[in-house]
Amino acid sequence: MLRVILAFVLVTIVSVDLHSQKFGHVNYRMLIDSLNDGKSINDQLNRYEKSLTDVGQKMITQFQNNFKKYQDSVSKGSLSQEERQKMESDLEVEQNSISNYQKSANESLEKRNAELLKPFLDKLSGKIKEFADKEGYTLIFDSSMGLINYPPTSDLLKQLVDFVDKK
């Protein structure tokens, strides 16, 4: 009999504890995009990417102009064999430079992205934990990963934006 009572008490404690837990969710991507710091980082990355793209575009335009000159000269028959080989070699070098630049620009953009995002995401993670502790949330799920069913009242996006962006 004592075991039955003990089991009943244990089940009651566990069920009360489960009911008292508070869960919430936030679309992490939307949260980042809604925060002032997230917007600022996104703007910085967009400007940096544009500057890299502009340089690459100038290289491509120069290559296209040189290629057109080469085609015009070949069609006129005004090039000697040596001049033709030299122009072809120059075009190949230019093409390789463009390819190398594109690879370097992509790596540079990825590095800059990591440099800007890591401290922001670390801070955001701390703020979410601070919010959860303050508001009594046991778990906050990232709904951008796909929650199947959740009540709209558990969406913490607005509350977290206000909490994180307050100065």
Give structural notes.
- The chain has 167 residues and is mainly alpha-helical.
- Helices cover 78% and strands 5% of the residues.
- The chain contains five helices and two strands; from the N terminus they run αβαααβα.
- The chain has helices at residues 2-20, 28-34, 36-76, 81-135, 157-165, and strands at 23-26, 139-142.
- It has a two-stranded parallel sheet.
- Helix 2 crosses helix 3 (36-76), helix 2 (28-34) crosses helix 5 and helix 3 (36-76) runs antiparallel to helix 4 (81-135).
Main beta sheet: strand number and arrangement? Answer: 2 strands, parallel
| Number of H- or I-type helical stretches | 5
Structural domains: how many = 1
Number of strands: 2
Mean pLDDT: 85
The span between the termini is: 59 Å
**β-strand amount:** under 5%
With strands numbered from the N-terminus, the spatial order across the biggest sheet is 1-2
Radius of gyration: 30 Å
Q: Report the structural category.
A: mainly alpha
Taking pLDDT < 50 over at least 5 consecutive residues as the criterion, the unreliable ranges are 6-12, 14-18
Q: Share of helix among residues?
A: over 70%
Fold blueprint:
Elements: H1 2-20, E1 23-26, H2 28-34, H3 36-76, H4 81-135, E2 139-142, H5 157-165
Parallel strand pairs: 1-2
Helix pairs in contact: 2-3, 2-5, 3-4
